[in-house]
Amino acid sequence: MRFYFLVCVVLLYSNFGFSNEESDRAMKLFSEAKYRESAEVYQKLIDQGFGGESLLYNAALAYSKSGQLAKAILLSYRALLWSPNCLKCKQNLAIYQAASGVEPIKTPESTVSKVWKSARNSVSASYWFFLSTLCFGLGLFLFKWKKRIGFGGVLFLISLLSFLLAWSRDDSDYSGSGAVVMKNSNLYLSPDTLSQIKSPLPAGEKLLLLDEIGTWKKVRLSDLNQGWVQSQEIEIIKL
Q: What is the rounded distance in angstroms from the CA atom of residue 151 to the CA atom of residue 140?
């Protein structure tokens, strides 16, 4: 058991050491204006399972400097999944979109929806789940052993609300409801390349996913136009 523990520690240390070493190398390449090479190093880290707002933000910046704006837009959206209130991520995303000539999707929202999303995104899903579990335990203690029905009931309600916020945050992080066009493509009337082309799809445009048939995705554009696009032309925005 002790040997196994030591092996795990060594592997964990090596993994983090490699991450830091490669991150430093990517930043050094970026400072030397070797943007494509820097982006490649960042991408290797991402492919190996490393993540986080900072890594994705820096990778997006390297891709943008190397002229790969669609990839920069995709990674900026993913960075915002890690940290929805990241101001620099939002600012750079707007810059990348303007440079690509694409319009962000704007959907009307009620005040209640805005307040809910603001609360949901204020902390991570794990934090909301921890708060839900804590309030449930305290509520059960007060309700069952202290006979404080009023306080116990309030804590149960907070626990339920926190659980719903945790579920909503986790779903928003991993649902993959949006996608980015990775290269200039077309929006088709039906899932067939022989069908009518409704409009061109510029690289970098964000799409909302509606349905899927085989290797085709039904999507909605920022102008609310709907149609079909081949799956290999897009990448889904998810962690």
A: 10
Q: Residue 61's CB: how many other CB atoms inside 10 A?
A: 21
Strand pairing class (216-220; 234-236): unpaired
In DSSP terms, 216 is beta-bridged to 213, 230
Indicate if the alpha-carbon torsion angle 51, 118, 207, 214 is positive or negative.
positive
Length of the chain: 239
Q: What is the pLDDT of residues 162-179, one digit of tens each?
A: 888 888 877 665 555 689
**Longest CA span, the chain:** 71
C-alpha–C-alpha distance, residues 84 and 121, integer Å:
6
Round to whole Å and give the CA distance between 119 and 127.
Answer: 12
- No. of H helices and E strands in the chain? 8, 7
Q: Tell me: the pLDDT tens digits for 185-212?
A: 999 999 999 999 999 999 999 999 999 9
Distance CA 187, CA 222 (A): 13
The residue with tokens 């493509």 is 185
Residue type, 31: S
Q: How far apart are CA 142 and CA 152, in angstroms?
A: 5
Amino acid at residue number 106: K
Check if the beta carbon of residue 45 is closer than 8 Å to that of residue 55: yes
**With contact defined as beta carbons under 8 Å apart, do 77 and 97 qualify?**
no
How much is the pTM? 0.71
* Token pair of 49 as six digits: 């399972």
